[in-house]
Design goal:
GO molecular function: O-methyltransferase activity
Bound molecules: S-adenosylmethionine
Number of strands: 9
Strand order of the largest sheet: 5-4-3-6-7-9-8
InterPro entries: COMT-like, COMT_C, SAM-dependent_MTases_sf, WH-like_DNA-bd_sf, WH_DNA-bd_sf
Radius of gyration: 23 Å
Keywords: Methyltransferase, S-adenosyl-L-methionine, Transferase
Largest sheet: 7 strands, mixed
Number of helices: 18
Organism: Talaromyces atroroseus
Number of domains: 3
Order of helices and strands: HHHHHHEEHHHHHHHEHEHEEHEHHEE
Protein name: O-methyltransferase C-terminal domain-containing protein
Shape: globular
Distance between the termini: 36 Å
Length: about 400
Amino acid sequence: MASQSISAILEHIASAGKAYENNEPGSKEALIDQSRALIASLEIPSEFLQRTFWAEPALSAIIRLAVDVKLFQYLEDAGEAGICANVLSEKTGVDVVLLQRLARHLVAMYIISFHHGTFHATPLSNSLARENYQHSISFCYDAARPSFNGFPSFFQRTQYKSPPLGSLSGPFQEAHKSQLPFFEWLVATPPHLQYFDSFMSVYRAGKPNWFDPGFYPVTERLIDGFDASKQGVLLVDVGGGKGHDVAAFVAQHTCSQQQQQQQHLPGRVVLQDREPVIASVMAAAKANELPFEAQAHDFFTPQPIKGARAYLLHSILHDWSDEDGIKILENLVPALQRDYSRVLLNEIVVSEEKPTLAVTSMDLMMLAHFAVRERTEAEWKGILEKAGLRIVNIYTYPGVAESLIEAELA
Ligand SMILES: C[S@@+](CC[C@H](N)C(=O)[O-])C[C@H]1O[C@@H](n2cnc3c(N)ncnc32)[C@H](O)[C@@H]1O
């Protein structure tokens, strides 16, 4: 991408602003992107250094500390009246001078506000006070950030070679002095599994889901032609984590069916994940309250649910090398019914021309934690072909990093 002049960026911001006022999909992301371009064009190097190496590391460190002392919760509890530094200091246990310095940086970075002598919550800080986001902050700071911090020395040691795909001696293992693969490390070092599952449940919250209107046509591609005989399965979410995707899918489709005077989804919806994840899902909800079925299943073993209408793998294959990805798909293939079952990969498809921050930062997360990479369309095609599948179509939505790749038996 060629760099733009400041006036060109301002013009883009103006037109993205109009699109935003008209609620056009992708306009918010375009505004944020152009605002970043504006900062990059305006900042002189000293300002760039100050923001990148002081302000932003200090911000994330303060936010991590805020989790421990419940800073955002106390600000939320204070409501519109706000809270003065002395009271906030008493509640958090942070001495008042230190508290003021930390909170001032949060004000300068627009995370909270200060007026009439009191600190105030913002919609953002109130969201960060929720348990899922508190866990996500801990995961990002404690588990992910050390892997990035170690990049320079790690790659100096490897003489700037990419680690072999799926390597068990990547930046993550070096940072955490472990030889375990990422997912095994999460289980072995509580509470990281819980924090990671929370992170997965919110890191794309607020973005359209693959099943939302205008993205993947669920009625046309899944519900029409669904075989409801023998209590058929409509959707299996393979490696679905805590079930946030299936819960939202069921909520949305049960609701739209009710408008048509029907009470239920046309078929069963099943969440699958590793045993400890399913155990925590079951423990968190009384089993009969779950809006979907839950089943422990290792996706490196044959898929036990045969002939479902669709098998969803959301952000699964990107965690694995090509070889392992092909193994996961090969374990799914025997369960597929020809001309009926669909495989849905909800994954990033990397564009060489216009990589977005959402795509490049996820690609670097993959490099840091799994020594793997996000894939281009040609790479997806290659993996699917090797497992005996073919791409039917790729669906995208403006401003959403992940596409929906629909595949079927070749
Ligand atoms: C990146 S998360 C994706 C979770 C969810 N699909 C989403 O997009 O939010 C990867 C998921 O794969 C699960 N997983 C890892 N290894 C697995 C295995 N061998 N069998 C089944 N699930 C596994 C993890 O527990 C985790 O929930």
